[in-house]
């Protein structure tokens, strides 16, 4: 649902002796910034998820996780970042139990380009928990990923549990290629539990084409008595 790319790398020691993992890093491509997700914050200090021991025993495997986010100048260009498949390369440095150093650098790693279609709808803000039958607000971002200008109309369709507040069939106006608009919407749920936000429809009046958006996000609905207690 976002332009973030999560990369999981599994590294296994296939030798017969332990090895010291000196460095495992991801060098992102020019369009991305990277954040390593292999540490936890304990008492204000960053600690490796693998603990203080950085040794990898024979046939043991570790999983390293990285999050890549598009740089600001590319994130605003939906059509550009959509087609990017190269995300970066892994740099792995280790030492054997005899002190011999080894290094492996992969070729450029590829990802599957996401299929956004012509119009992409993503959720910017939504509360985690809401009260039963009480209105709450969400913010959506609509992006024109096509190469043509669209004239959009928004329709809101109620489901068994989700009810939209406001006028359906609202004109959103023209949206140029690679441009976005933010939309504040109000809804309420008539059913408790984890509910899926569904029922948004966007129609391009130029081509008479309708795009359906269901299961956009989930929200936990509780009774007001439970939330206040």
Quick take:
This protein is mostly beta strands. The protein has helices spanning 72-75, 78-82, 224-228; strands at 5-12, 19-28, 32-36, 39-42, 45-48, 55-56, 61-70, 86-96, 101-105, 109-110, 119-125, 129-131, 136-144, 150-156, 162-165, 170-175, 180-189, 193-197, 200-204, 209-213, 217-222.
Descriptive notes:
6% of the residues lie in helices and 56% in strands. It has 229 residues and is mostly beta strands. It has two domains: 108 residues, Immunoglobulin-like, CATH 2.60.40; 104 residues, Immunoglobulin-like. The longest helix is centred in the middle third of the chain and has 5 residues. The protein is elongated. The chain starts with a strand and ends with a helix. 13% of the residues are buried. It comes from Podilymbus podiceps (Pied-billed grebe). Pfam families: TRAPPC13_C, TRAPPC13_M. This is TPC13 protein.
What attributes does this structure have?
Immunoglobulin-like; TRAPPC13_M; mainly beta; 229 residues; five-stranded antiparallel beta sheet; four-stranded antiparallel beta sheet; 21 strands; elongated; 2 domains
CATH fold-level label of the largest domain: Immunoglobulin-like
State the distance separating the first and last CA atoms.
34 Å
The overall average pLDDT, rounded, is: 87
Helical segment tally? Answer: 3
Biggest β-sheet strands, sense, barrel: 5 strands, antiparallel
In total, how many beta strands?
A: 21
CATH class of the largest domain: Mainly Beta
CATH architecture of the largest domain: Sandwich
């Amino acid at each position: 649902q976002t332009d973030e790319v999560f990369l999981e790398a599994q590294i296994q020691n296939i030798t017969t002796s332990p090895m010291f993992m000196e460095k495992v890093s991801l060098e992102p491509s020019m369009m991305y910034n990277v954040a390593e997700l292999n540490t936890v914050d304990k008492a204000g200090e960053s600690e490796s998820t693998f603990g203080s021991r950085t040794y990898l025993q024979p046939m043991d495997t570790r999983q390293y996780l990285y999050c890549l986010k598009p740089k600001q100048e590319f994130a605003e260009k939906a059509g550009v970042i959509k087609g990017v498949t190269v995300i970066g390369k892994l740099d792995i440095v280790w030492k054997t139990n005899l002190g011999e150093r080894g290094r492996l650098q992969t070729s450029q790693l590829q990802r599957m380009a996401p299929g956004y279609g012509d119009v992409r709808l993503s959720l910017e803000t939504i509360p985690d928990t809401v009260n039963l039958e009480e209105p709450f607000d969400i913010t959506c971002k609509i992006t024109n990923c096509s190469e043509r200008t669209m004239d959009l109309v928004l329709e809101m369709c109620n489901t068994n549990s989700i009810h939209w507040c406001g006028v359906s069939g609202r004109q959103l106006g023209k949206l140029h290629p690679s441009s976005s608009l933010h939309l504040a919407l109000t809804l309420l749920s008539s059913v408790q539990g984890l509910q899926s936000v569904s029922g948004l429809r966007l129609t391009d009046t130029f081509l008479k084409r309708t795009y359906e958006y269901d299961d956009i996000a989930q929200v936990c609905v509780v009774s007001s008595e439970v939330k206040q207690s």
